[in-house]
């Protein structure tokens, strides 16, 4: 069990952490803000979008992409800080759009959970591919609450967390960016994986809200390490380079808008690799 260090308190609903240019970025869905933390844990608001969910990732040129689920679109933050529409997602699904991961070519994969949550009747979710020119096409379906996604360092495999199925599912990414050859990457019985990331040794870290922990698992499901928390762990990401750290965002589920969210840091055995 790895003991966490608290980097930031007072977050409303933290999600979608990303390591970018030596800083930790994440979304506070409850405050409708994208925030970057410096080395001392000082937050800087980088964008504001009235959406819940509101996941983020970066294009190869460093521009930020933001999933504006409330308006079924993908936004792009330009160098001057302005937000423009990168793609319209509404033609694929009008249900909540969730996580995003971008590959080295600028292809963005965005998933929709497929039903109104919480309270709506369950329906399977999907993954859409957004090409660099803003084209959108569905590339996967029949996912049991698709959540966090990651792309392996070789760019050939996309892994998605199926929270309701208690598993990580993998696809081969073909030369056109389409997803092929679906398979189970790892079963996670008793854990409902949320946000995920890949490390340089090929293992995946997954966050679990209900069990208030993150697990490091290898393909096939063997658990290699566990980091526990005092509230739900929603998503995680790894730093790069020497002395790697796992950054985790989480909060009390159903907090009613109270600022129970935190950002934690724990030492990790291997740095991040691939995307995010």
Largest sheet: 4 strands, antiparallel
Q: Give, in order, the helices and strands.
A: EEEEEEEEEEEEEEEEEEEEEEEE
Mean pLDDT comes to 96
Low-confidence stretches: none
Which structural class matches the secondary elements?
A: mainly beta
Strand percentage, roughly? over 45%
| E-strand count | 24
**What Rg is obtained from the alpha carbons, in whole angstroms?**
17 Å
Shape designation: globular
Q: In DSSP terms, counting alpha (H) and pi (I) runs of 4 or more, how many helices?
A: 0
Share in helix = under 10%
Distance between the termini: 24 Å
Q: Spatial order of the strands in the main sheet?
A: 1-24-23-22
Give a description of the structure:
- This protein is an all-beta fold and 276 residues long.
- Helices cover 0% and strands 53% of the residues.
- The protein has strands spanning 5-11, 14-20, 23-28, 33-37, 43-48, 56-58, 64-68, 73-77, 83-88, 97-102, 108-112, 125-130, 136-143, 146-151, 157-162, 167-173, 179-187, 193-198, 204-208, 213-217, 223-228, 232-238, 245-251, 261-267.
- The two termini are 24 Å apart.
Show the helix and strand layout.
Elements: E1 5-11, E2 14-20, E3 23-28, E4 33-37, E5 43-48, E6 56-58, E7 64-68, E8 73-77, E9 83-88, E10 97-102, E11 108-112, E12 125-130, E13 136-143, E14 146-151, E15 157-162, E16 167-173, E17 179-187, E18 193-198, E19 204-208, E20 213-217, E21 223-228, E22 232-238, E23 245-251, E24 261-267
Antiparallel strand pairs: 1-24, 2-3, 3-4, 4-5, 6-7, 7-8, 8-9, 10-11, 11-12, 12-13, 14-15, 15-16, 16-17, 18-19, 19-20, 20-21, 22-23, 23-24
